[in-house]
Design goal:
By secondary structure, the protein is α/β, with parallel strands linked by helices. It has 3 domains: 117 residues, Conserved hypothetical protein from pyrococcus furiosus pfu- 392566-001, ParB domain; 53 residues; 45 residues, no CATH class. Helix content is 52%, strand content 12%. Helix 6 crosses helix 8. The longest helix is centred in the C-terminal third of the chain and has 17 residues. GO terms for molecular function: DNA binding. This is Stage 0 sporulation protein J.
Length: 306
């Protein structure tokens, strides 16, 4: 989080002291862009222009005002926590974590930035970037859920392993992942803070998508509390159980209908949007991936590595 001026005064020389530990005898006058070769698995000051951004960065939007506040803090305090990079070549590094600190340091016109230099392959880069963001950034619930999903699908982690990596119980991880089963409109509402995590968890228990959207619109329009939404959901559940089930027509089901439905569910969870998979008896068909905006399209393209 960004630091305001009052926080700066309270911290005194703490940032300078930590930087002294990081770079040895710390003196801003000694900082130059011609920092000598540094070893892997060490902390040292490196030229800020030699750091490439992280291609696996799961978060693309950063609050401009918050960055400017952090930049002002850095001008006074320096970098309190080093960024983490991997070494690509003699004078080139790639960011693993610390995107906000890197951007703010550029705004503060720093030439040298303290960094922990380590070795990492692409999968480790993605995993570390996702975990660092989950733990340190003020992510909304959907961003956390998508990050969890990416860790599961792209880093080949199981839910138990994921819980250990991010320091959360498996039930907590599961609750976030369930959010991705909500219709796109509700996911966007949660992302934009129109509803809270408690509202979303209650809406998940409504099996009918139309009813989910109906209750969601009421939440937004009437500013309903989580308790009120939970009561609505319980009432809907009672009404549904009291209604007799309509007679099902005796139609021959498509032999692959069950598998198609499972594929739809897996794809919808992976992409964070309701995906339709259609197939005919000959096995031909199509996949429809809806998107709500250009940003949403870019998010989907990022998942596809396009």
């Amino acid at each position: 989080m960004s630091e305001n001026k009052n926080q700066i005064k309270k911290k005194g020389g703490l940032g300078r002291g930590l930087n002294a530990l990081i770079t040895g005898s710390y003196d801003k006058k000694e900082e130059t862009a011609n920092t000598p070769e540094v070893a892997v698995n060490a902390i040292a000051g490196i030229p800020i222009q030699s750091v490439q951004t992280n291609p696996f960065q799961p978060r693309t939007h950063f609050d401009k005002e918050a960055l400017e506040e952090l930049a002002e803090s850095i001008k006074v305090q320096g970098i309190i926590q080093p960024i983490t990079v991997r070494k690509l070549s003699e004078n080139t590094y790639q960011l693993i974590s610390g995107e906000r600190r890197l951007q703010a340091s550029k705004l503060a016109n720093l030439e040298v930035i303290p960094a922990f230099i380590r070795q990492a392959n692409d999968q480790q880069m993605l995993e570390m970037a996702l975990i660092e963001n989950i733990q340190r950034e003020n992510l909304n619930a959907i961003e956390i859920a998508l990050s969890y999903q990416r860790l599961l699908s792209e880093c080949n982690l199981k839910q138990e392993e994921l819980g250990d990596r991010v320091g959360k119980k498996r039930t907590t991880v599961t609750n976030y992942l369930r959010l991705l089963k909500l219709p796109p409109d509700i996911q966007v509402g949660l992302r934009d803070s129109k509803i809270g995590m408690g509202h979303a968890r209650a809406l998940i228990n409504i099996s009918d998508i139309d009813k989910q959207l109906e209750v969601y619109k009421r939440i937004v329009a009437e500013d309903l509390s989580v308790r009120k939404v939970e009561e609505l959901v319980r009432q809907l559940s009672i009404e549904n159980t009291s209604k007799p089930e309509p007679a099902k027509p005796e139609l021959s089901e498509h032999p692959q209908a069950g598998e198609i439905k499972r594929v739809e569910t897996r794809l919808s969870t992976h992409f964070g949007t309701k995906i339709q998979v259609k197939s005919n008896a000959a096995g031909k068909g199509e996949i429809k991936i809806p998107f709500l905006s250009v940003d949403d399209l870019n998010r989907i393209l990022e998942i596809l590595n396009y």
